[in-house]
Amino acid sequence: MTAPVLLITPPFTQLNTPYPATAYLKGFLNTKGIPSVQADMGIEVTLALFSKDGLRQLFAQVDAGKEWSENAQRILALQDDYINTIDAVIHFLQGKDPTLAHLICKRDFLPEASRFEQLEGLDLVFGSMGIQDKAKHLATMYLEDLSDLVQECVDSHFGFSRYAERLGRSANSFDELHEALQQPYSYVDNLLVDILSKRMADVQPRMVALSVPFPGNLFAAFRCGQWLKQHYPGVKVVMGGGFPNTELRSLSDPRVFEYFDFITLDDGESPVEQLLQYMEGKCAIEELKRTYVLVDGKVTYFDNPSCKDYKQGQVGTPDYSDFLLDGYISAIEVTNPMHSLWSDGRWNKLTMAHGCYWGKCTFCDVSLPYIKNYEPISAQILCDRMEEIIAQTGQTGFHFVDEAAPPALMRELALEIIRRGMVVNWWTNIRFEKSFTRDLCMLLKASGCIAVSGGLEVASDRLLALIQKGITVAQVARVNRHFTEAGIMVHAYLMYGYPTQTAQETIDSLEMVRQMFAAGVLQSAYWHRFAMTAHSPVGLEPEKYRVVKDSYILGTFANNDIEFTDPTGTDHESFSFGLKKSLLNFMHGACFDYPLHKWFDFKIPKTTVSTDYIVKALEEEEPGIAKPTSKVVWLGMQPVVELFVKNKKGEQYEKASLTFINKQGKHSITVDKPQGLWLAAMMQQLSLHNTKTLTLQQVKEDYEAAGMEDFELFWDNKPVNTLYRQGLLVL
Predict the structure, then answer these.
(1) Is the peptide bond prior to 567 cis by the omega test (within 30 degrees of 0)?
(2) Cα-based distances in Å from 468 to 453, 499, 538, 540
């Protein structure tokens, strides 16, 4: 298929699902009537490498005369076993042969090398029934063993989900990357350019646009650009994506343009449209949008102010055609519930909103447009796009890749999903803010929400205030309980090494995390080390946060990460292993009674957090936040009403029994007859299928108009206040 534009994601991102950037651009180009073809080179190279023919060629590349590690020698000795099993393993991980799981779990089918030495307590993690997940984990270790061989013996740059990542990280100077690009092609490079060559012959584009989201895609992107310049000098080559958006905002090295003609920043729709106009001679070079180009040997940046960006409702539905959708593989590399969700299964990726509605966290690049410029999309448009993507891909799972999904929009999206009767499952990133009430979490669950992830960061109220997170530890615990009780998995991002953080605060944070896992309100988490970036409030004003920038010279290539000195002098890195080891145990429900000092091989301060801090926080009565303007909705079916007379101490009372039938069974309540008849009639009005939604104030007024008193006494107490489990929600 020929097309003027070829959109490429270079190796490697995720192996289980396409990275969505090119799908967004293709969807936009569709609205302009501009044909395009997209390719995820990461999955294509992976499938070429991990196949019978690919492994035969791989093993032939290894110099048998060299002294390799004991692990590499073992894999080489077992090469026939790898060649004979690789296609079956890939088919299994693609979901095409699920019964192979039983054979894999016997532990005598796959050859095993050093990665399998890390496997402990698989039955504890997966249980006797988790055959599919256990097999995926074993198959992933098998692929990781082969990855180790590739890295040691054939291509030192290789790594799953990243390629030559070190060359892209903090590369102030282009020298090292440029030098690496002068070296002969590696085996993986040859696989890449062979696939690229075939794609170029098929598509015959005038423009090739490479999306580079991460440092691990950068080297492969330059290899593509290098090959294109040598073999298709008339084709314009463009780079955009997350890496240039954050790292290349002060680019000045002209050598970069030996590989690319243009580099664009931030949202790609308007820049790409202007580039196509420029290539057709319909606009001058000065009219380009957020684009670097080499002019008279000097890197020049053009940003035409008269060219406006498109609104999110105008950019079209992401288009996932052209991808090898049945070729992606599900891997379970680590037994972290959220990371498993991330890498296991095909997820259609969408955003509810551009940017972040909070935009205050001091460690985040809040000064950059992709976070700063907040713009939500309507729930109706989101659901329209979801239905289009489901029809295209056949997949009903969605990962909303928002910086932080807005609670109000999540509510409207959930209501719209339920109204349309859509069968979907979805997850997203949030802030643990108090807007996530019990009832909202129940609604999200009813719409198909299965998990949320959010930043608890440093679990210390002093540091959360310094970060301007807008939350407290106690508030996070209560919000997490709402999600957990609704049946939504909660993952927390944790941080250590924030400026002025002390050893005491690190240990106290660990204790807070331990208590949340012990209380059952947190199911998954991950510790990462704080990094200071040039576009964050900390990086822009380090003195305000009492840290000192180390000698910093603005480079000619990538500029983002900043080295700094924290005057508190805490050796944050020494805590890394203990924090991660303890967390692994907590996630598996183990070692809650283990003294914290046992996780570290050096002396640590005793925690100052009381042992029941989280329990007490969960016991605190939450302030009533249901406002008169809150929406009231009924998600269930109409109850069956039975009237009867109750005799008590010689008196007769007219009663109403309301029976609610749901998927799990039935639930009955008994109230006075007038209230029962009113409640049954009101539920018809509160049904989501009605066009008009009532507020809590309107419900109260209707109750009082029916001649009844003490609405709050009736509504806020048993048995009515138990009906949230049946679907009576105040939002």
Answers:
(1) no
(2) 18, 13, 11, 15
Q: Could you report the per-residue pLDDT of 399-439, keeping only the tens digit for each?
A: 999 999 999 999 999 999 999 999 999 999 999 999 999 99
Largest CA distance in the chain: 102
Q: In what order do the strands lie in the sheet with 694-695?
A: 694-695, 631-634, 728-730
669: phi then psi, degrees, rounded to nearest 5: -130, 155
Q: Which residues contact 36 (CB under 8 A, 6 or more apart)?
A: 3, 4, 5, 6, 7, 25, 26, 29, 30
Q: Which two tokens stand for residue 509?
A: 């944070």
Q: Would you state the structure tokens that stand for residue 310, as one six-digit string?
A: 């498109």
Euclidean distance between CA atoms 206 and 221, whole angstroms: 18
Window from 297-306, 327-336, 569-578, 669-678 with minimum mean pLDDT:
327-336
Q: Residue 634 in contact with residue 686, Cβ under 8 Å? A: yes
Residues 469 and 439 sit within 8 Å (Cβ to Cβ): no
> DSSP label at 606?
P
Residue 412's φ and ψ, nearest 5 degrees, are -65, -35
- Rounded CA-CA distance 104/138 in Å is 7
Mean pLDDT, range 156-174, rounded to an integer = 66
Q: Which parts of 534-574 are beta strand (E)? A: 548-549, 561-562, 564-565
pLDDT digits (tens, 9 = 90+) for 613-662: 999 999 987 665 678 999 999 999 999 999 999 888 778 889 999 999 98
Is the distance from CB of 238 to CB of 264 less than 8 angstroms? yes
**DSSP structure class, residue 658:** E
State how beta strands 5-9 and 207-211 pair.
parallel
Residue with tokens 């026939």: 80
In angstroms, the Cα distances linking 643 to 72, 590, 657, 674 are: 78, 51, 6, 10
Q: What is the pLDDT of residue 15?
A: 87
CA–CA dist 166, 161 (Å, integer): 13
Distance of alpha carbon 226 from alpha carbon 392, whole angstroms: 34
Cβ–Cβ under 8 Å, residues 271 and 308: no
